[in-house]
Amino acid sequence: MGGAFGPSFLCLVCLIYFIQGFRSFVWTAVSYQMKDLMKLSPSTSQFLVSLAYFPWSIKPIYGILSDCIPIKQRKRVPYLIISSCLSLLPWLILGLSQTLRTSANMLTSLLIVQNLGSAMADVVIDAMVAEAVRLAGPVFAGDLQSLSWSSMAVGGIFGSLLGGYALSNLPIHVIYVVFSALPFFQLVSCMFVEDSPKRFQSAIDEHNNQSSVTAFSEEGSGEALGKEGTRRRKGTRKNNKRRSLSKQTEANEKPNGSFNSSPCLSLKSAFFSLCTAFKQPAILRPMAWFFFSNVTIPNISTVMFYYQTEELHLEASFLGTARVIGWFSLILGTYTYNRYFKHKKLRDILVFAHVGLAIISLLDIALVLRLHIPHGIGDKYMVLWGSALADAINQFKFLTRMFPFGRMMPFLILSGQLCPPGIEGTLFALFMSINNLGSTLGSFLGAALASALNISTAQFDNLALGLGVQLIGTLLPIGFLFLIPNEVTGLTS
Q: With contact defined as beta carbons under 8 Å apart, do 271 and 69 qualify?
């Protein structure tokens, strides 16, 4: 695989995904900063964290920019450099300025900028992976996918382990500075990666000419099959004219060094392509369900963090260990899914996931109501098992979300067939950002719920009621599974 993609590219992929997992190292410090140093209430912290993660909900914007607007004739690497700087500077500023990190508004603003950089890097590297798979062949898609997820899991394990240890031995502002070294390494690594190797350029052009339009007609909704060939021929003729006009425009502009018109044409084409793909019922209905399934669940994870540390007095090192078990559960969940569930109907898998998450909510309710104490079960065991099972079950939903359209292939290949070559990052970002937006809105709903129930650092009497509302919200999406085609399975390869 290294010979197919190049060691510098593979190192960059591993590093970016490792950093995504290792973010738990520094975000644990952010949680303690808000709770212990800034003395924020659970609902306020939940709201600010939700706001800080909003850049993950607008990922198509970064995809469109990197797909359609090159910087100095380069599509990907300049945006990786920009995103690396956006990821690096906020942590340095927070580490070096006490005034800024103790201000709720400034802290939130800098965290938004940092997430903007992380989300942009995530989109761009996904697009580069999709392009690399297109050039090297689908046989490498599974290898790259496994490499990416493995790197993220390793980063999550080390981040969770070291995060708890660091909080026990280092000031929080030092943790910010230490973590900034990783975005710096990412920035340096970008200097050694090429966008599109020249030896592959002819293959890209040939592929564009042959399949840029037929992808949609091949993946369409299947209406009026007798008219499909006619539409395809008409679409091909129109697109050939459009490409010819585009090439003439570029040829006229190159002597002047101007790229002002070409990006506009590319943006219009990308927007039209995304709208055409997104309007397909095979895509729109499942994505509507996944969005709804996230919105209906009020996320009160920050409130539970306050309860575990303030009421149960659990140490940072223990909570880090619980997250490590959660990461191993993610790996186990992935194996179990691929081994036993991927041939099952998607509806059945999603029912299993949501019923399982509802059971986890019952465990949390039992923890808050202290129902486990008469049975001699310690708080730490309840938290450990709850965290491990929740992460494992969430992995099932994550895997079905990655492949919700019933195609018998990894998403890296699917993205190349659902859209014309060149907007892979935008398509993938659109799918994932819809889920991220649903999760963000669910987190805002959790903050509002905590505020309405008057849950505070010293008052957790209504927390069990909040968890009960969360349990009901977890079961609601099961009633809307008719949006998922009944014949679709969870097969990913």
A: no
pTM as predicted: 0.76
> How far is 88 from 250, CA to CA, in rounded Å?
36
Q: List all residues 6 or more positions away from 404 whose beta carbon is below 8 Å from its beta carbon.
A: 286, 287, 290, 346, 484, 488
Amino acid letter, 430:
L
Q: For the chain, what is the largest distance between any 2 Cα atoms, rounded to a whole number of angstroms?
A: 81
* Mean local confidence (pLDDT), 380-404: 68
Torsion of CA 299, 303, 308, 313, to 10 degrees: 170
SS3 489: strand
- Could you tell me which residues are beta bridge partners of residue 74? 71
Tokens of 222: 């299947």
> Count of CB atoms within 10 A of residue 346's CB?
25
> What is the spatial distance between Cα 204 and Cα 201, in angstroms, rounded to a whole number?
5
Report whether 184 contacts 88 (CB < 8 A).
yes
Select the more confidently predicted residue: 78 or 328.
78
Instruction: Write out pLDDT tens, residues 137-178.
Output: 655 555 666 777 788 888 988 998 898 889 888 999 999 999
Length of the chain: 493
Q: Could you give the CA distance from residue 140 to residue 126 in angstroms, rounded to a whole number?
A: 14
In sequence order, what are the residues at sequence separation of 6 or more whose Cβ sits closer than 8 angstroms to the Cβ of residue 105? none
CA distances from 462 to 337, 386, 459 (A): 36, 20, 8
Number of Cβ within 10 Å of residue 330's Cβ equals 22
- The answer to whether residues 161 and 321 touch, using CB atoms and an 8 Å cutoff, is yes
Contacts of 21 (CB under 8 A, 6+ apart): 151, 152, 153, 154, 155, 156, 157, 158, 159, 327
The token pair at 315 is 């140490």
CB atoms within 10 A of CB 318: 17
Amino acid identity for residue 178 in this structure: V
Please state, in angstroms and rounded to a whole number, the distance separating the CA atoms of residues 379 and 368.
Answer: 10
**CA distances, 153 to each of 8, 19, 140, 147 (Å):** 21, 10, 20, 10
Helix, strand, or coil (residue 7)? helix
Contacts of 39 (CB under 8 A, 6+ apart): 457
What is the rounded distance in angstroms from the CA atom of residue 443 to the CA atom of residue 304? Answer: 13
